[in-house]
Write a sequence for this structure.
């Protein structure tokens, strides 16, 4: 009886602290917030640097901050874009804390936690930040407003928990994420056709699901040919749904899905999963075309691999990779990019959708959005 009462008290305490152990909160809300944190730091920083370099904009190319190490011998210089990119760890941590409804003192304390986890995680830093920030956030919420010296206790507990956990798990998590990403990239180079299909379909589906394909790609550091296949899959979903649902949603739906997100179709997919067939088949075709025919590589910020045509971030990422590698951009490169990202997804999804409409698998207004 005492055990039952004790468990009831624990549940009541966790409810009061808004700590809910659920797949939606940690697997959807936190992961989605992670993508936003990545976008506002790493991705925006990369875009600003690219614009500055390509258009010769002085204030974007100018060094604004120079930081020296403890010895004073080595220093790192940052442009505006470089500084934004360097804040990726704190950006992810704070975004996750916001999604988990952190009290202010916990939220602000996640800034150094995110920086530490990202730095210790190495190439797989974003994934390390994801795990560490969730744990640090919940630890901070447990003690928040439980003492009269909350302004000291809450930040100290949050920071010590976050940095301490980072020291234990950030490096292994980072290495594991990096290893998975490298394996996918290696496998795609070894088997560009089959891996082109697999990566394109899986990442494309993740983009339409209420999880974050961008965060997954960033966590795994997905670039190269695998990144190109991921871009293809995401574009197939976004452009595919936008075009095949044009008769129901007109121009508003075209823009909302084609430049926004295909996730808008999730309620309709739940009602009739068959509407997902056309864009998914399109991704299975454009993926291997990207890897085998056009050799489309995404070597910009890995988060771009999972963005598709959302704000045209996927295409900017491909272009950024070309520029950073000093690649001589040919007409074939541009043709491949346009075909894979826009033309083929539109034509294929429309054609497959037309067939499914004739078969009665997709009925009138099955793709209608509440816009």
């Amino acid at each position: 009886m005492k055990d039952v009462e004790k468990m009831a008290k624990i549940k009541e305490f966790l409810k009061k602290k808004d700590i809910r152990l659920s797949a939606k909160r940690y697997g959807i809300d936190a992961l989605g917030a992670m993508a936003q944190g990545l976008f506002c730091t790493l991705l925006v920083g990369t875009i600003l640097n690219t614009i500055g370099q390509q258009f010769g904009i002085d204030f974007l190319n100018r060094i604004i901050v120079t930081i020296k190490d403890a010895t004073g011998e080595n220093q790192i210089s940052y442009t505006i874009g470089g500084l934004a990119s360097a804040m990726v760890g704190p950006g992810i941590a704070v975004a996750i804390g916001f999604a988990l409804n952190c009290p202010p003192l916990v939220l602000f304390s996640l800034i150094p936690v995110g920086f530490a986890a990202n730095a210790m995680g190495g190439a797989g830093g974003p994934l390390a930040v994801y795990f560490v920030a969730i744990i640090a956030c919940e630890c901070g919420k447990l003690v928040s407003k439980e003492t009269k010296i909350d302004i000291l206790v809450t930040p100290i507990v949050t920071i010590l928990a976050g940095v301490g956990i980072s020291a234990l798990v950030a490096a292994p998590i980072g290495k594991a994420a990096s290893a998975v990403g490298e394996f996918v990239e290696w496998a795609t180079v070894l088997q560009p056709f089959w891996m082109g299909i697999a990566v394109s379909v899986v990442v494309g589906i993740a983009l339409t699901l209420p999880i974050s394909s961008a965060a997954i790609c960033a966590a795994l550091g997905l670039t190269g040919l695998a990144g190109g296949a991921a871009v293809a899959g995401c574009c197939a979903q976004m452009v595919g749904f936008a075009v095949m649902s044009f008769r129901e949603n007109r121009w508003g739906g075209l823009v909302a899905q084609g430049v926004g997100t295909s996730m808008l179709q999730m309620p309709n997919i739940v009602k009739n999963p068959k509407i997902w067939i056309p864009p998914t088949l399109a991704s299975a075709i454009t993926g291997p075309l990207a890897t085998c025919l056009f050799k489309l590589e995404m070597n910009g910020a890995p988060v771009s691999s999972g963005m598709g045509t959302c704000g045209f971030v996927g295409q900017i990422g491909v272009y950024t990779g070309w520029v950073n590698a000093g690649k001589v951009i040919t007409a074939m490169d541009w043709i491949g990019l346009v075909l894979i990202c826009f033309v083929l997804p539109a034509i294929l999804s429309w054609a497959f959708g037309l067939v499914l409409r004739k078969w009665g698998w997709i009925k009138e207004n099955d793709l209608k959005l509440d816009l």
Summary: The chain has two domains: 2-175, 191-359. The mean pLDDT is 91. The chain is about 75% helix and 0% strand.
